[in-house]
């Protein structure tokens, strides 16, 4: 690593205004989708370079489906299109935060729920960890 | 994959109440930390099995630092301890959501800011993408 390579320049990456997303060894960057009004965290997914380019070009969220190994226009079949209101990037530019509004019924999770995070991880006094479903999201 | 292995049983993983976190090929699970009152997304980091166990046991966020290759008790030196108010897991149990309160000055990012997501990704009419710092978070 040398300071002459902007990709390795921490100051430029952290304080600069040049977008230089860092994709991991699988060519993916993490993306957190949040409902733009309520700030409810909806899902965490991944984009490859093409998905990110399509997201920026269309204003709708495109991901890379790791399970299907294919480009994924979120909501293409369900109508639950995620329209981007704002995209942010974190300090070291290896994670994106998407503020979105959701089409159709406003759902997000493939289980039909509005968010993928519908279970609380609970550890009781004996140290046993169990999941608890939230009443309003079952 | 067989249906007799609970780890491969999608119904158990998605609808069950047994916590079976899925670590990736590097032994890590993604964790999104959110301020528990404001729901502001603070950071995205990673936990290995030990970090997750310590988080559950102590009620404070422990991560695995990929840059330092070491266990990381967030706030250990800065005082910006993240106390867990609630932990959630997503549908396929490969991502955690932490609702936290932050100690000391309430900061999170190593740059000194309250959140790691202090820059907006903006694409202008000509298709040029630039970052914009938020006034209240510079």
Q: Quick gist of this model?
A:
With 138 residues, chain A is mainly beta. Chain A has two helices and eight strands. Strand 5 of chain A pairs antiparallel with strand 7 (119-123) of chain B.
Key traits:
homodimer; 138 residues; mainly beta; 4-stranded mixed β-sheet; two-stranded antiparallel ribbon; 8 strands
> Could you tell me the number of beta strands of chain A?
8
Residues in helices of chain A, as a percent range: 10-25%
- For the biggest β-sheet of chain A, the strand order reads 2-1-6-5
List SSEs of chain A in N-to-C order: HEEHEEEEEE
Produce the secondary structure layout.
The structure is a homodimer of 138-residue chains.
Chain A: H1 10-15, E1 29-35, E2 41-47, H2 49-58, E3 62-65, E4 70-73, E5 82-89, E6 95-102, E7 119-123, E8 129-133
Parallel strand pairs in A: 1-6
Antiparallel strand pairs in A: 1-2, 3-4, 5-6, 7-8
């Amino acid at each position: 690593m040398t300071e002459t390579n902007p990709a390795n320049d921490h100051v430029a990456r952290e304080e600069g205004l040049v977008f230089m997303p860092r994709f991991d060894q699988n060519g993916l960057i993490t993306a957190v989708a949040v409902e733009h009004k309520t700030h409810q965290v909806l899902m965490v997914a991944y984009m490859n370079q093409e998905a990110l380019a399509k997201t920026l070009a269309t204003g709708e969220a495109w991901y890379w489906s790791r399970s299907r190994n294919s480009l994924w226009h979120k909501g293409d079949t369900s109508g639950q299109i995620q329209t981007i209101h704002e995209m942010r990037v974190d300090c070291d530019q290896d994670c994106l935060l998407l503020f979105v509004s959701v089409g159709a019924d406003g759902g997000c999770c493939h289980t039909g729920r509005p968010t993928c995070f519908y279970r609380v991880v609970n550890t009781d006094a004996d140290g046993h960890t169990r999941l608890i479903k939230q009443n309003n999201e079952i």
